[in-house]
Amino acid sequence: MAGLADTLAKWYESDEILSLPENAQQPMLMMARQAASICRQSILDHAELAIASLEAGEVTEAFVKLTEVITSISGMVGGMGDAFARTTIAHEIHDAITNFPESHHFLHGHKVAYGIMVQLAYEKKWAEIDNLIPFYEHLDIPKSLSDLHLDRLDAEDIMEIARLSTKPEAPVHGLPYEVTAGLMAEAIQALDKYMANLPKL
User: Fold this and answer.
1) Which of 8, 101, 18 is nearest to 46 (CA)?
2) DSSP 179
3) 50 or 86: which carries more pLDDT confidence?
4) pTM value?
5) Rounded to whole angstroms, what are the CA distances from 64 to 49, 72, 78, 128, 149?
6) How many CB atoms lie within 10 A of CB 52?
7) CA–CA distance, 118 with 15 (Å, rounded to integer)
8) Taken in order 161, 158, 103, 107, is the CA torsion positive or negative?
9) What is its EC number (predicted)?
10) pLDDT tens figures, 134-160
11) How far is the CA of 106 from the CAs of 97, 98, 150, in angstroms?
12) With contact defined as beta carbons under 8 Å apart, do 29 and 21 qualify?
């Protein structure tokens, strides 16, 4: 599950950059964006069946597809997109929250998955967050600080995450919009409030 979430980030971290007019017609970047799109759509379409196959010890078409996506197609995103298609907010959030011991038993992909949600909140793409919530819940992927056992964090802790994820050398500054610690902290808090208000199943 963690590998699926990490691969899903290929699309969300690169799309804003690769879709810029000056990049959209560059052949290698076009290929990188297509690879990222394949990663996203394949995971959303086939993850449930692939996981069921894995648990049953069966090799199915869905399992093979996602194995190829995770091990091969995902590498093509950064390989062809280079600095235009590498990590941005989702992975920087991962790196920042690893400073808190409560997160240490979560796998890399789980923390990146939470970072995807933070990035979408930063971009105010709440409709896409709504689209991903059923997928996250089905796979039991963290979508809030509470899910990462970090609900004890106060405003100062959240600002520390925001500062670490937006440090001057961070790749988030390659995104086509301003990325600041203040706005990042607001996105983290807004996401947690949004998730806390979801209807209970």
Assistant:
1) 8
2) -
3) 50
4) 0.94
5) 11, 12, 22, 27, 33
6) 13
7) 15
8) negative
9) 1.1.1.-
10) 999 989 999 999 999 999 999 999 999
11) 11, 9, 12
12) no
